[in-house]
Amino acid sequence: MMDDDDASFRLTPLDVRRYEFGTSLRGYDKMRVDQFREQLASELERLTRQNLDLETKARNFHEQLRAFRERDKALNDALVSAQQLRGDIHDQADREAQLVLREARAEAERILEAARHDARRYEEEVAALERLRRAHFAQLRALAERQLAEILAAEQTLPTAADLSALARASDTHDAGSPPRPALPTPAWLRKVDDA
User: Fold this and answer.
1) Is 37 in a helix, a strand, or coil?
2) Cα R_g (the chain), whole angstroms
């Protein structure tokens, strides 16, 4: 395990391959050391590639995470905006509904007032027609009563059969040279007919 001081020390595969060990009398087997160095360098290359791949993947994951966070923030903002819009639309719809309701009530009140006015006018017209009808019937009654009174009066002044006989005899006996005889009185009903 490396200390923090050794974290800056980087050993590359090339460093391993170029490193020269000093020789000593009782040293290691050179061929086995070279073989080990080659294996170590290959392993370092593999680990370096793997580390680069992992760093690339980590960067990609960080980019995706950043994109997801941005999308999540955008979605949250859109959700908040949608909720605000829904609230605004709901408030607007309430205001419009209240306005329509007020206008409908005002229109209904106007129609009712017009109907009341028409009803009063019709009642006045009906009352005027009723007064006219009563006056007309009163005139007819007065006319009928007057005519009946005249008929009764005429019946009382009708000449009797004796008056008519005397009148007939007087006209038969009257000559041209004789003085005229006094005429019988003309009844009232006959006078009215003559005046007409």
Assistant:
1) helix
2) 70
Amino acid in position 162: A
CA angle, residues 59, 61, 67, in degrees to nearest 5: 105
* Six token digits for residue 39: 């294996």
3-state SS, residue 171: helix
Give the integer Cα–Cα distance in Å for 183 and 14.
Answer: 179
Count of beta carbons in the 10 Å neighbourhood of residue 172:
7
Quote the Cα angle for 149-150-155, to 5°: 100
Q: What does the chain come to in residues?
A: 196
Cβ pair 15, 39 in contact under 8 A: no
- How far is C-alpha 182 from the chain's CA centre? 99
- Give me the tens of pLDDT residue by residue for the chain, a chain 196 residues long: 444 444 556 777 777 777 777 777 777 777 888 888 888 888 888 988 999 999 999 999 999 999 999 999 999 999 999 999 999 998 999 999 999 999 999 999 999 999 999 999 999 999 999 999 999 989 999 999 998 888 888 878 776 777 777 777 776 665 555 555 555 555 554 555 555 5
The helix or strand, by DSSP H or E, that contains position 153, with its residue range, turns out to be helix 30-156
Contact, 9 vs 2, CB < 8 A? Answer: yes
